Structures are given as structure tokens and as C-alpha cells.
């Protein structure tokens, strides 16, 4: 990722929070913690879902470092939500982070 203009999507970083539900369990939700500019690249992945072939949309989202994005966080772009599964520094220089994500459906 070299062109600054490639980071043209305004993403909202959300982190998971758990609140007691009063019955001994917890309710998991997300709260917004940061706004980031990023580049979203879609990758398709074949998968078997309920014994039927299907597709899971996988995405690589690149943001400028230092960002606090961690696996388990979520990135939101409008109504679309991407669950962060892994985070890496692709060139080892600490300038950008690449988040391997899968899109959540409501």
C-alpha cells in the first residue's frame, strides 16, 4: 500500500463489550472506539455451509498504523460490518496494518 489516496473509505472501529444480563450470563455488543481511513479489497472464498457449497466473502482491509485494531474487533463501513480475524504488518515497517476480515450479515 503506497498511495495515500487508496485509503478512501471512512471506517468505524468497534470493540466488543460484555454486559451482565442479570441471569448469570452476558450480552455481547460493540462500541465505537475510533474512526479510520482504509482501503477495502474483497476476496472470495469457497466454503461448505450446512452441507451445501457456498461462498463466504473475505476482505483485506488496510489502515494506517498505529491503529489499535485487534482480532475480535469489528470495522463498519456504512451498514456493512467486517469482523477482524487477523491483523498483520505487511511490509514490517509499521506504516500500515492489514486486517483479514469476513463480512457479517445482519
In short:
The protein is mainly β and about 110 residues long. The protein has strands at about 10-20, 25-50, 50-65, 75, 80-90, 95-105.
Outline the structure in words.
The structure is a single chain. With 106 residues, the protein is mainly beta. Helices cover 0% and strands 67% of the residues. It has no helices and six strands. Strands 1-2-3-6-5-4 form a six-stranded antiparallel barrel. A hairpin with a 2-residue loop joins strand 2 and strand 3. The mean pLDDT is 87. It comes from Ancylobacter vacuolatus.
Count all strands and give the number: 6
Largest sheet: 6 strands, antiparallel, barrel
Which structural class do the helices and strands define? mainly beta
Would you tell me the overall average pLDDT? 87
Strand content: over 45%
Round the Cα radius of gyration to an integer and report it: 15 Å
Low-confidence parts lasting 5 or more residues at pLDDT below 50? Answer: none
Helix content: under 10%
Number of helices: 0
Widest sheet: strand order?
Answer: 1-2-3-6-5-4
The H-and-E topology, N to C, reads as: EEEEEE
Distance linking N and C termini = 30 Å
Q: Which assembly state applies to the chains in this document?
A: single chain
Protein name: SPP1 family predicted phage head-tail adaptor
Organism: Ancylobacter vacuolatus
Write the layout of secondary structure elements.
Elements: E1 9-20, E2 26-49, E3 52-64, E4 74-77, E5 80-88, E6 96-104
Antiparallel strand pairs: 1-2, 1-4, 2-3, 3-6, 4-5, 5-6
Amino acid at each position: 500500500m503506497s498511495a495515500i489516496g487508496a485509503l478512501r473509505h471512512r471506517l468505524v472501529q468497534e470493540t466488543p463489550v460484555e454486559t451482565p444480563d442479570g441471569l448469570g450470563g452476558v450480552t455481547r455488543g460493540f462500541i465505537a472506539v475510533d474512526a479510520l481511513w482504509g482501503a477495502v479489497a474483497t476476496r472470495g472464498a469457497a466454503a461448505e455451509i450446512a452441507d451445501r457449497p457456498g461462498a463466504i466473502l473475505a476482505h483485506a482491509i488496510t489502515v494506517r498504523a498505529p491503529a489499535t485494531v485487534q482480532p475480535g474487533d469489528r470495522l463498519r463501513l456504512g451498514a456493512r460490518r467486517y469482523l477482524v480475524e487477523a491483523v498483520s504488518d505487511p511490509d514490517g515497517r509499521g506504516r500500515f496494518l492489514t486486517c483479514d476480515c469476513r463480512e457479517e450479515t445482519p
